[in-house]
Write a structure and sequence with these properties.
Blueprint: H1 4-17, E1 22-23, E2 45-55, E3 58-66, H2 72-88, E4 93-104, E5 107-117, E6 126-128, H3 129-138
């Protein structure tokens, strides 16, 4: 079993070397927008969020939904889940490390890893939890 310091160090190295990835299945066209602001107005059915704490500062989130034509809604759902999880853990910011999106039949699935903490973490794709939760509420996107 890896020590906490090793896991955190590996996540930091991966975050510096690999930018966040939004991968779509071959049958879909990837969207360039991410976040709750990109969620189109559709009849989306949110099928739930699964969270796995990888470390005190790392979380693996998995979501599923139906009723959308693009991966933007999946990315928005993941960000809302990350924001809520961050607040539940008593933190205020989350940094996206990676995201993978796929579609099978009519069901979209997304999996993302976020590093959570207090303050302003380094990186490009950061989520300020309270502001994101307000945006998610405005867009009727559920969280955890």
């Amino acid at each position: 079993m890896m020590a906490r310091a090793q896991i955190v160090a590996m996540a930091l190295v991966a975050a510096m070397v690999c930018p966040p990835v939004l991968a779509a299945s071959p049958e879909t066209k990837p969207e360039t927008k991410t976040g709750a602001e990109a969620a189109p107005v559709e009849d989306i059915t949110y099928l739930g969020v699964e969270t796995r704490m990888l470390d005190a500062e790392l979380v693996d989130l998995r979501v599923a939904l139906k009723g959308t034509e693009t991966d933007a809604a999946v990315a928005a759902y993941l960000k809302c889940a990350a924001a809520q999880y961050t607040l539940i853990r008593g933190m205020d910011t989350a940094r996206q490390i990676r995201t993978v999106v796929s579609k099978s039949g009519g069901t979209w699935r997304g999996q993302a890893v976020y590093m959570i903490g207090k303050g302003n973490p380094r990186g490009f794709d950061k989520v300020e939890a309270r502001a994101m939760m307000n945006e998610c509420a405005e867009k009727n996107i559920p969280a955890i």
